[in-house]
Write a structure and sequence with these properties.
alpha/beta; 7 helices
Length: 195
């Protein structure tokens, strides 16, 4: 399991622009400084991910989202109801969010993981990328042993034990749309219908 030294090493790596594999309440994530376009590029390269597909941003707390997004009252209420948790909320981004992160789109996926280590990492470094630590198209890693060798050799790995393995639900509250069904999808659908 992860120690304080592991977290300190991960923080230093992100500050250098390097990659970090970290545990969440869903699967293992691949972190880089979400505000550093070059670091975000390294995430795309490690994953073999198309630059047409945006990457989400993990934050330590819901309140921090307003530093990088312009949420409506309804979106704010949704975030208060479901974050922290296994949910990615698409919010209108500010110009502080680099184009490469969002594939030149006007919305950024915001995650506040319900995992102390993941939030502590984001608290110490600022926004980090929130994408599964796997090669694109391959299964997500639930343990560090399941990590792709190519990702493992490019990143500092923080072992937090086995994760649940359920993907986050991706929601565009403005459109009332679930973009990807995952954890808590039925509950989210009910909230969207009521609000």
């Amino acid at each position: 399991m992860a120690s304080d030294d592991d977290l300190t090493e991960a923080v230093a790596a992100i500050r250098r622009g390097d990659l970090v594999v970290y545990p969440t309440e869903t699967v293992y994530g691949l972190a880089a400084d979400a505000l550093d376009a070059e670091a975000v590029e390294r995430v795309f390269e490690a994953k073999g991910r198309s630059r047409e597909k945006p990457v989400s941003m993990a934050l330590p707390d819901v309140d921090v989202a307003e530093d990088y997004t312009n949420p409506t009252e309804r979106e704010r209420a949704f975030c208060e109801a479901f974050l922290p948790g296994p949910v990615t909320v698409l919010l209108e981004r500010t110009d502080r969010v680099p184009d490469v992160l969002v594939a030149d789109r006007d919305r950024v996926g915001i995650r506040v993981p319900d995992h102390d280590l993941a939030r502590d990492l984001a608290r110490r470094t600022g926004p980090i990328t929130s994408t599964s630590a796997n090669r694109s198209g391959n299964p997500s890693a639930r343990t560090v042993d399941e990590l792709d060798a190519g990702i493992r050799e490019r990143a500092v790995v923080v072992d937090g034990g086995e994760t649940p393995g359920t993907e986050s639900t991706v929601v565009n509250v403005a459109d009332g749309e679930i973009v990807r069904r995952g954890a808590r999808a039925d509950e989210i659908e009910a909230w969207l219908a009521e609000h």
